[in-house]
Amino acid sequence: MRALLRGALYCALWYGSIVAGFLFIACPLLPVLLLSPIRFRKCADLLFSCWELYPTGLLELFGVKILVSGDHISPYESAILVMNHRTRVDWNFLWAAMYQACMPEVAAHKLKFILKDPIRHIPGPGWVMQMNGFLYITRHWEEDRGRLSNSLDYLVALGRRCQLLIFPEGTDLTPNSKEKSDNYAAKHGLPKYHYTLHPKTTGFSYLARHLHQAQYLDAVYDLTIAYPDYVPQSEVDLVRGKLPKEVHFHVKRIPATDVPTDDLMLRQWLEKRWHQKETILQEFSKGKAFPGKVWPMASSLPLRAAIGFWSLLTGATVLLLVISPLFQLWALVHSALFVALSLFSTGFNQIEMGWYWRWKTQS
Questions:
Q1: Gap between the Cα atoms of 356 and 37, Å rounded
Q2: Phi, psi for residue 257 in degrees, rounded to 5
Q3: How many whole angstroms separate alpha carbon 90 and alpha carbon 204?
Q4: At 61, is the secondary structure helix, strand, or coil?
């Protein structure tokens, strides 16, 4: 029972902070989009960077250690991040890893995920991720190529140096997904992997070539995540309070000059990286640590400030939703707006991009 209460509190604070940020800060920013998409994007990125401190602080508060080794991640670079997808909740620990890996830089990173399209429909988190410019794919390449092209052209036009995270495996490691990966390996004469899935190379190759051609790729970061004690497989585990004691990340920076520009060579390059990742994870399973020095723990002061601010904001949101008819109407109107965007459009970020190009021709 104690673990269940602990997990429920963790998830309630995490989810509540997103809803609070959406209603109190993100929605009031919407008029800025009409006036200046450039300013809106800067404000939205800043808001999300401030929120990312909160899940990082929550992990520290609930006793989860995030250990990062390898290379520093520069928040000033335009980069692609490729990472293995061990569980459905890897992203929950990634915020803390990025916070540590970007130190000692003061500037916050601008991480944007490339996710499955259904995720954008999740009330609260999906809406905020749309407003933060996350990229969504449908697994239908003709449509996805157009979406990716529009999104990348938009980021280049804004001059925003951001980091794009992609999970080349396409899904997390489960018995079912491993069986499919093994069948693929047998069909194509490839080795069977035990700690990863064979990567899907189409999306990565397109991203790298597009950014290369725009002269907007500074580096590719290869991130490897591993769990030495307990592996939470889904959000249900988090709700039950089954949190790991430690989560390890290893970062390898590859300069853009060392990344191929040809489609076939890019695919082979990624497959080679995944073969190396499998070997690294095999060694991790024996020693419960990645090679190299672990980065020192980042300062806790910003995290404590984030805990205080976002917890108070969450409490104020709950209180106003109970006692204020005006705030209830505000929440209802904006929730209905994003539900409509989910049902009848390709998402807020696509509308933002379309408005930017129209705004640019008029200004």
A1: 6
A2: -65, -20
A3: 19
A4: helix
Of 87, 134, 29, whose CA–CA distance to 350 is shortest? 134
Q: Which residues of 256-273 are buried (b: 16+ CB within 10 A; e: fewer)?
A: beebbeeeeebbebbeeb
- At residue 214, the pLDDT reads 93
Predicted local distance difference test score (pLDDT) of residue 106: 55
Instruction: Look up tokens 């670079």; give the residue.
Output: 77
Q: Contact 85/173 with Cβ under 8 angstroms?
A: yes
Report pLDDT for 350. Answer: 87
Token output for 346: 């390709």
Measured over the CA atoms of residue 215, residue 219, residue 220 and residue 223, the dihedral's sign is negative
Tokens of 345: 């459009």
DSSP string across 181-221: HHHHHHHHT-PPPSSS-PPP-HHHHHHHHHHHHTT---EEE
Cβ(311)–Cβ(13) below 8 Å: yes
> Which residues of the chain have a pLDDT value below 70?
104-107, 298-299
The whole-angstrom separation of Cα 16 and Cα 318 is 8
* 96 Cβ contact partners less than 8 Å away, ≥ 6 residues apart: 55, 56, 59, 60, 64, 66, 247
3-state secondary structure of 172: coil
